[in-house]
Amino acid sequence: MVFTFAVWGNLFAQISPGDLVAAHSGLEGISNCTKCHTLGKSLDNAKCLKCHTEIAGLINTNRGFHANKKVAKQNCWKCHGDHFGRKFQIIRFNKKTFNHVDAGYKLKGEHAKAGCNDCHKPEFINDKKLKNRKKTYLGLNTECKTCHEDVHQSTLGNNCAGCHTEEKFKPAVKFNHDNTNYKLTGAHKKVECRGCHTIATKNGKKFQKFNDVEYQSCKSCHEDFHKGKFGNKCSSCHTTASFRRVKNMRSFNHSKTNFPLVGKHKLVDCKTCHKGNLSFKPKYKLCTDCHSDYHEGEFQDDEDNSDCSACHTEKGFSPSTFTIEKHNNTTFRLTDAHEALPCYTCHRTGDKWHFKIDGKYCVNCHENIHQSSISEKYFSEKKCENCHNTVTWQNITFNHEQTQFKLTGKHQEQRCSACHFKRDEKSNIVQHFKDLQPYCSQCHNDVHAGQFGSGEDETCNRCHTTENWEPSLFDHNETRFSLEGAHANLECSQCHLPEKKKGVVFIRYKIEDTRCISCHS
Q1: Is residue 358 domain-resident?
Q2: Number of domains in the chain
Q3: Within a domain: residue 406?
Q4: Distance CA 26, CA 377 (A)
Q5: pTM of full prediction above 0.90
Q6: pLDDT tens digit string along 47-91?
Q7: What span, in angstroms and rounded, lies between the C-alpha atoms of 428 and 251?
Q8: Residue 318 belongs to what domain range?
């Protein structure tokens, strides 16, 4: 037995070129030679790959360094020689000069700056057999998720290179939003990504949602400024250029708003009310929200006239819709000639309109031509209606019976001005009302030159009436000289001769000397 072992050991030493590396030490012994060698032939790559299935898999799928054309046709033993001792380095290459392109993965950008061990480490290897192998460069694939965390949590697929480059993860320079289902236009191009793609927490980690973002309706991202009043199709009015730019405003149906456009409002440019931009929501409850108060607050305290609609419509500021019927509901009813007057006659002074005017007294609008010439008894509180009415100023309704001078006869036919308006020495018209006395001489010339008294002493009514100037009441027989005989047939002028006194010619009727000799010589 001892001899046999000695012979066999000597024989094995002559057949084996040396000890196998530590990894292959389990194949020591002549009975194991054919596991790697084919008798009478060189080493067979197929036998190597039968054990090294991880390499076979790479070659079969045309991946990795061993699938490279430079390497694929070579024998395994050319690079991985054995029988050089237990500590022989069967896998060896220069890390500094190794061209990573030969492994089928070119290092670019930040990858080119990384060290080998930054990527080739167990935690990045999925294969359990390789994961436990020390100092291996196998087991990695070219998917980014092999080394990098998928911050998108599998929501965007595995093609990271569709958006990112090896230079840096952010920004995703290769991403083009136009290739998605939602093309960015107008102001959307300027929005930060997180403006639409919000950051939340998913699976205990911060997560920015890029996929499955609602975009079919503008309301998915934007608040509905109009609160659903105009439906969901924002594009019928707006563009992505700016929310404040509205396309084809002429086609916009303003009737859907709380303020339908009627009358002249239809002709107003939108920016006149929506100042600055169309998103500006103006006040519109009162006309004065847009229009200056022409009346300067004159009606602001009136419940019935608090808004312009009491007098105006959208058809135009003028003419006013304030009718005579409405005016007659005020404290001043329009009657007769007042009905025919245009509004400005009473309500406009210069360039200013005033509607809440005091119409209690006529003198508020009309000049008081009488001033203080009429007695307070007949003109109390300046009430012109004691004499006048609204038909015409010339139509006097004053009852002269209430005065001391009742109108009879021809006096009834006279105009008031005949007695009450006189011209002075300068031809100025002077009124006489309360200064007139009930004497004939106040209006009539005394053709008798004071023969029959004047003022309170006048005796005109002893001969005359108001019917005419004739002395129809005169009876000569009631005088001191009764007409008898031939005297009764004489003309008055035969006895009553004209005289001149202080330049005034008059007929002497009151004869003091009634003796015959005064007339008969």
Answers
A1: yes
A2: 2
A3: no
A4: 150
A5: no
A6: 999 999 999 999 999 999 999 988 888 999 999 999 999 999 998
A7: 72
A8: 254-364
